[in-house]
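Changelog-adjacent note: as of this version, every example in the card shows the full chain rather than a window. The one below runs 414 residues end to end.
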Amino acid sequence: MIRSVMDEQRIVITGVGLTAPNGDTLPDFRRALLAGQSGVSRYHIRYVGETLAGECHFDELKYQKRKEVRRGTRAGSVSIYCANEAIADCGIEWSAVNPERVGVYVGVTEHGNVETENEIYEIKAFDYDTKVWSHHHNPRTVANNPAGEITLNLGITGPHYTIGAACAAGNAGLIQGAQMLLLGECDFALAGGVSESIRTFGIFAGFASQGALAENADPARASRPFDRDRNGIVVSEGGCLFTLERYSDASRRGAKIYGELVGHAMTSDASDFVLPNPEQQARCMNLALERAGLAADDIDIVSTHATATTSGDIQECEALRRVFGNTKHTLINNTKSFIGHAMGAAGSLELAGNLPSFDDAVCHHTINVDNLDPECELPGLVLNEPRQKTEIKTILSNSFGMLGINSAVIIQKV
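Full-length structure tokens:
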């Protein structure tokens, strides 16, 4: 096969490794989404007490020894699991891959809070004597830890780093991996996002102080984006990493291809610490469409960021109306209604859950919408039941975050 210059500039997804509160493989995750199965459950954490969360149940020892799990971090274990699963899924002969040409790009919302909280809690029993402070603290809490733990586990000697992008981090990791492939800095990339957020009480306490932490007698019904009675975020952990390759390399080895990254954008609101800016969110989506050479009506599915906060959902819906208000067949869904907000992993998990639609032509739905908020009404919003289409060829996935960071990626069927 002749490798064309154009094929060298095409970046495709060839493998998916994930853990979510309702599934530890893409097939299981997808089945849960189509079946309306929530992964939210009751959860107890120190100082906060009884709350709700999306907790993952993957096998930490599948790719690590007990000693390695104890020495490392929860985010590191999530990353290692997802990386190994993605490599296995992509079908590449790992022993034949040059480790110097593999890059690892992991998006995170935050990192290090879990370990710091735990160690401060423990040393108080010793009158805060720092002699009992763990000598593992520094490598556990450095920002590059999740990506670095992957390289240690897999013997990767190419570039690695984490991308701090609040709740847009999953998309940011994917974008960074694609850019490094295009720059020739690597030939194979592991890219996406991870989160260990439910392990830190500070996350829960922070949202609670904002009045933004979800409450519901039924955990499965707690995360309810777009619903009139939504009352906040369900904090979740999780991870999803993709294997990315140039189309020329993937096609030469006969790899299965989930889809091609044809457009992406990241923008900033520059307006508020937490309140989204619909004008800038719309600009981000339009920029991704422009770079992809597509019109809004070319998008079959829009995966929304909507977190189930009162103002956040309304602001995003306003942005969506500006871009997709006149489209004739675009469907709009949400994944957080199933799993809560997986922070740094949200973007990559939400994209992954929609990728199988290229094969089955089904748009998964948003659950828990009993009374649609009139301010969240949108044409094409898929509620409470999956929607079958004749064909699905293009997905746009949004992820937005605090400090006004916006991201959008567009994946097309190959």
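Structural remarks: Residues 263-412 form a domain with the Peroxisomal Thiolase; Chain A, domain 1 fold (CATH 3.40.47.10).
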